[in-house]
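During the no-cost extension, the postdoctoral fellow (Dr. R.K.) reprocessed legacy sequence entries with the updated structure-token encoder. One reprocessed record is reproduced below for audit purposes.
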Amino acid sequence: MSTKAEMVQREDEAWARFEGVIESLTEEQAVEPGYYAVDGWSVKDLIAHVGSWMAEASNMLERMRFGTYAPDARDTDDLNKEFFEANRDLPLDVVRAECHSARTRILQEWDALPQLTTEAVEWFEESAAKHCAEHQPRLEEWAAELRTRASAVAGGDEEVPAGGGAPSG
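Re-encoded structure tokens follow.
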């Protein structure tokens, strides 16, 4: 098992990649539906989703710390829908602030745990580093599509490569 510090390092690296793509988008791009087409998610909805799971994990880690933890039998899909509905009408700046707050709290709760358990590691990793990494490929793909569209609208229909940079061709 990795140490707490190693897991925090992985979380920090995953967060930096995740946040870097988000920060590259304009507010209009971040609220445009299309990140997850089935449910009409935008990047804002993704931020709310990740933040909600970090907040949920923080609660679980706190319960572990106080000895009141019991495994959660709630359905993941139901929780995802609940989180989506709770955040869908919030403005982007509020969603971002809540996500940053949830990240701070999960790191604080992680640091405060007196000992690591399998459940603690699972809640921390699945709701933080692994969760950001799971969504990273689609986030990058969607951001590239949004930037390509913005480039076409701004002055031509040349495509911008997925990694950004100068148009080709």
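Residues 120 and 148 are 41 Å apart (CA to CA). DSSP finds seven helices and no strands in the chain. The remaining legacy entries will be reprocessed before the final report is submitted.
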